[in-house]
Amino acid sequence: MTTYAIGDLQGCHAEFVALLERLDFDPRRDRLWLAGDLVNRGPGSLACLREAMALGEAASVVLGNHDLHLLAVARGGARENRKDTLAPILGAPDRERLLDWLQTRPLLVRRTSAAQGETVMTHAGLLPQWPVEQAAGLAVEAEARLAGEGAGAFLEAMYGNEPACWRDDLDGIPRLRMIVNVFTRMRFLDAAGCLDFAAKEGLDRAPAGFAPWFQYPRQDDPWLLFGHWAALEGETPDSRVRAEALDTGCVWGRRLTALDLESGRRISVPSRQ
Fold first, then answer.
1. CA atoms of 42 and 11, how far apart (whole Å)
2. pLDDT tens per residue across span 72-96
3. Which secondary structure element, helix H or strand E, spans residue 259, and what is its range?
4. pTM of the complete model beyond 0.90
5. Which of 226, 220, 228, 195 has its CA nearest to residue 209?
6. How many Å apart are CA 94 and CA 111, to the nearest integer?
7. From the record, what ranges are coiled-coil (predicted)?
8. Three-state secondary-structure class, residue 19
């Protein structure tokens, strides 16, 4: 059995199928980790969602910011953005079944192996101040709200950049918003662990006093897999933790990449966008 981790699909369905064929992926034998943002911007968002759901237990999928945006539009009263490509999903006959499945995806998946120790995947990364056990517990808090009866109200209140700094005594919507923002939107932090939400480009665009989250040390040593940051082009320069950037910008015309978690080998197919 081989486990592969794949970066942001963002509607690149043809490339997803081509990559699975190149991997000779067999859901009866292999496992797949998808780093979130299955949908939006690319032309095949509906097909990506159906493909991922059809893989069943063979695929572990974490929620990304674009996946949450789809849920917020469909069930939280948010408006579509001009660049969104969500209309085919919103008008699909199996819309509710797809949304139900997506809404119950986790924010964090993890495993332990003799070769790699603890492996953790989230969409955007892991706050350096959060040990893995704390991060896993916080993920469960937000997942419970997303899957519960108050999901619509939370999806409506989810958007916002405050609070930008984690405190253990945060509660209510601010606490949940901070958790979701860390797991799905984080890029640059300051030394206190406060997030910047404005900078979205490469490392040369870091705001003064901020650095990418993976350039801060941790007290534990998990292998961290993340997507979200296409401008990194799969690299994590000057990282002070074991981190693997999986988003290699398929939707922006570059490539879709899988990481073999057993060998560390990367396999890519070119974008068709």
1. 4
2. 999 998 899 999 999 999 999 999 9
3. strand 255-260
4. yes
5. 195
6. 32
7. none
8. helix
